[in-house]
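Lab notebook, bench 4. Still working through the backlog of constructs that have no structural model yet. Next entry is a single chain of 325 residues. Request: give me the structure tokens for it.
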Amino acid sequence: MDQAYAPRHDPTESSPPLQRRELTVADQRQRVHRAYAAATVGVPTAGIIAAIVLAFTRGVSTTEWVLFGVMYAATALGIEAGFHRYFSHRAFRGSRFVTYLLGALGSMAGQGPVIFWAATHRAHHAATDREGDPHSPWLHGSGLRRRLRGLYHAHMGWLFHADRSDWARLTPDLLKDRDIVRINMWYPMLLTLGLATPAAIGFLVMGTEGLWRGALWGGLARIFALDHVTWAVNSFGHIFGRRPYASNNHSGNIALLALPSFGGSWHNNHHAFPASARNDHHLYQLDLSGLFIEALARVGLASDVNRPRQLARRAAAPRQETQKQ
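Model written out:
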């Protein structure tokens, strides 16, 4: 058909039914996603507020502190050693038991399914602090107000605008692994288990009152604390901190967060060697996740552990060969 006589769409007319349906589906998905993000942020926030109020009015028992600490440590390892270094960067090989263990613990943390987490983090490394980085604090312009907006976006605002379109492109290796896909599908059940476990232990130790106290401290308050430590690495870790390694991004090492982040806050070290299972490049740098991975390797549950010196030698080898030629 001659282009001059091709029928043109009148913008004043209503959209075709198919187009309207597609837009409606996209809008519905966006609403669901934002509702999920609001719950991810809002429910643990309500939990920590309730926990603080109850702490001042009724106190906190030893059992509640222990549940908070044990569940925090377990899920922090699930996020940093599991979702981050194992699933996102494949920094070591793990047995099937390790895959399910770290997948379950990371899911209990309540930061989203494993494939979503890995895809988002890989997108961050693909375009760190540049257009395409899902949670950079540097893409909102200059000036105090815009800087604060960028800080909020990098910390948790990005959750409301997370892009799902690149999951398959960014995680083909994870999608080919049936165990990982199964863990991803089990996320709602594992998240519930992360709340039910401290509730059940609280009930066994303290009776009926321990049921909700355990869920509060070992569940919601713990999720709130770990969420904000993890997000702080995304936000404050790209504004503040020491930068021993020169790079084209703003990642920094924040020593104060090393313990609660289980080594994740040695962020400049990590961006220098993303595929490393160890973030501690000096004896004074505490990296509990790195030590945990080394322990797995020692008992035969992990292998092919990437370490900074090995990665540095591999990176230097091609340069040396080029210079010889």
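Notes after review: Residues 1-15, 317-325 have pLDDT under 50 and may be disordered. The beta strands are 93-94, 302-303. Flag for follow-up if needed.
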